[in-house]
Write a structure and sequence with these properties.
The chain is an alpha/beta fold and 182 residues long. Helices cover 36% and strands 14% of the residues. A five-stranded parallel sheet has the order 3-2-1-4-5, sandwiched between helices. The protein has a two-stranded antiparallel sheet with strand order 6-7. A hairpin with a 2-residue loop joins strand 6 and strand 7. Helix 1 crosses helix 5. The longest helix has 18 residues.
């Protein structure tokens, strides 16, 4: 991770924000868990936006069909935004109130680490059965959710949106973890 780009001193994006805003820079695809996330949004009661990069894999027929299905079922919370230059992405991390990482794979990816380094809490599915080893010792991941159940994901989203205290508590655990990992 380039700490010159991803850090708390990054300039924030100049953009109007009227409500709690998540940023999801992930590709919209099955193996990023976009469908899992979008299915969970129908259970959410709070009002928030998700800035989702309009980025699909389109090299295989399965990916093209996935894109067609996803574009025909965009939840009201999701606002598609154009692709972002790598050098500009940290501005979006700083602008957002929280970040959405991978909701499928079960282990954190760069989005989770980058978001935390920009001082934002991150939602990223953690499979509790996948061990994480750092410096020869197993450590627990603080990233949530630990389930792919849409209702459980919605519950966590609701807490993140509505409780600054819980959001800060989650972030502090994530920051300690990322500091130990990087």
């Amino acid at each position: 991770i380039d700490r010159d780009i991803f850090n708390e001193n990054t300039n924030e994006l100049i953009r109007k924000k009227n409500k709690f805003t998540f940023f999801s820079p992930n590709r919209i695809e099955k193996f990023k868990g976009t469908d899992i996330l979008w299915n969970s949004l129908k259970y959410c009661k709070t009002d928030f936006d998700i800035l989702q990069v309009n980025w699909f894999g389109e090299t295989q027929n399965e990916e093209r069909l996935y894109k067609k299905n996803m574009l025909s079922n965009i939840p009201k919370q999701v606002k598609l935004i154009p692709m972002i230059k790598y050098s500009e992405i940290s501005k979006y991390y700083k602008f957002a109130d929280a970040i959405i990482g991978n909701m499928f794979i079960g282990n954190h990816e760069l989005v989770a680490l980058e978001g935390v380094l920009c001082k934002k809490p991150v939602l990223s599915y953690t499979d509790p059965n996948i061990p994480i080893v750092a410096d020869g010792k197993e450590i627990s991941s603080p990233f949530l959710p630990t389930s792919k159940d849409p209702k459980k994901i919605a519950e966590i989203i609701e807490v993140i949106v509505s409780s600054s205290e819980k959001r800060d508590e989650l972030f502090k655990k994530q920051y300690e973890f990322v500091s130990e990992m990087t």
